[in-house]
Amino acid sequence: MNGPAEVAEVLASAVVVAIPMKDRFRGITVREAVLLRGPAGWGEFAPFRDYGDADCLPWLRSAIAAATTQWPDPVRDRVEVNTTVPVVIPDRAVALVRASGCRTAKVKVADPGSAAGADLERVAAVRDALGPGGRIRVDANAAWTVDEAALLVPALDRAAGGLEYVEQPCRTIEELAAVRRRLDVPVAADESIRRERDPLAVARAGAADIAVVKVAPLGGVTAALRIAEAAGLPTVVSSAVDTAVGLAAGLALAGALPDLPYACGLGTGSLLTGDVSSSAVHPDAGSLAVPRVAPDPDLREQWAADDEVRTWWLDRLRRVAALLLTG
Ligand SMILES: O=C(O)CCC(=O)c1ccccc1C(=O)O
Ligand SMILES: [Mg+2]
């Protein structure tokens, strides 16, 4: 654990950045993040704006751990990643997949503002772009009931010419277990790991085939590594649309996992119009290097948030740090 003096010093280093996204994603058009510097390097604190202060605690633990501790030793130096396709029209989906060079695409579906038919068309367009050898997974972000999933997943599976898995089709662990029993397409759990009080409950319930593991909401690289190991499921390390600093933490986790049978969701640097580091965040032939990045001073300056945004994040940081130090 970090003492209050060390935490105060790390918090005092806060830099707030705001980077526009190429396409709207999760209702967001500008990704905001606080970067923290400590003796071991940089950490990223970027919980989405709609999260309550208590939900932000693991994100702060993760950022402080990245800034103050060493990461576990890697067992590989590159990590295969998927390209992430937001809710966009088919032509845009094709362009994103082609530009990525990735052989796996994760397609967002079940967006509240769009129809099921548009999801089928987007997925079919992604298959055209990838060719028969590519892999397609879809992420419904907990939007469906079990009956909706039982109807829509087989339709998406056909439109895709085969799905690798469906990520978080429904909200609860019981619903995921029911979908898993009813369908042949493998089920991955995301929100049921990172937003549950017990991140291992989904594995214990046999409710998923695959664990999506995100560093920041699970409290940092080391904490997430322990969760992945205890879950005992094949793990997909994924980003929260991080800057290069947060992606480096995800890559450290992916680099340290003993087995990594699936492409990771760490190709999200390509969703941003720029980044805080010139170190590679765009996949090269579908993979990323396991790095330890420092933001470039020039790029930090280029993406510096305006005063209003900066004040909002520093206030939030202060409140969450108070919770951390008293809780
Ligand atoms: O996994 C990926 O390909 C990208 C990351 C991603 O989809 C995501 C990014 C921010 C918030 C939630 C999610 C999600 O997986 O649900
Ligand atoms: Mg997800």
How many structurally independent domains? 2
Helix content: 25-40%
Write down the Rg: 19 Å
Task: Write down the CATH topology of the largest domain.
Answer: TIM Barrel
Q: Main sheet? A: 7 strands, parallel
Name the CATH superfamily classification of the largest domain.
Answer: Enolase-like C-terminal domain
Shape from CA axes?
A: globular
**Overall mean pLDDT score?**
96
**What's the architecture of the largest domain in CATH terms?**
Alpha-Beta Barrel
**Relative strand content:** 15-25%
Spatial order of the strands forming the largest sheet: 5-6-7-8-9-10-11
Protein name: o-succinylbenzoate synthase
Catalytic activity: (1R,6R)-6-hydroxy-2-succinyl-cyclohexa-2,4-diene-1-carboxylate = 2-succinylbenzoate + H2O
Cofactor: a divalent metal cation
Binding site for Mg(2+): 139, 167, 190
Structure, explained:
The protein has 327 residues and is of the alpha/beta class. It has two domains: 97 residues, Enolase-like, N-terminal domain (Enolase-like, domain 1, 2-Layer Sandwich); 212 residues, TIM Barrel. The protein contains twelve helices and twelve strands. The strands form three sheets. A seven-stranded parallel beta sheet has the order 5-6-7-8-9-10-11. Strands 1-2-3 form a three-stranded antiparallel beta sheet, sandwiched between helices. A two-stranded antiparallel sheet has the order 4-12. Helix 9 links the parallel strand 10 and strand 11. The model has no long low-confidence stretch (mean pLDDT 96). Magnesium ion (MG) binds next to loops. It comes from Nakamurella alba. Its cofactor is a divalent metal cation. Belongs to the mandelate racemase/muconate lactonizing enzyme family. MenC type 1 subfamily. It holds the Pfam family Enolase_like_N.
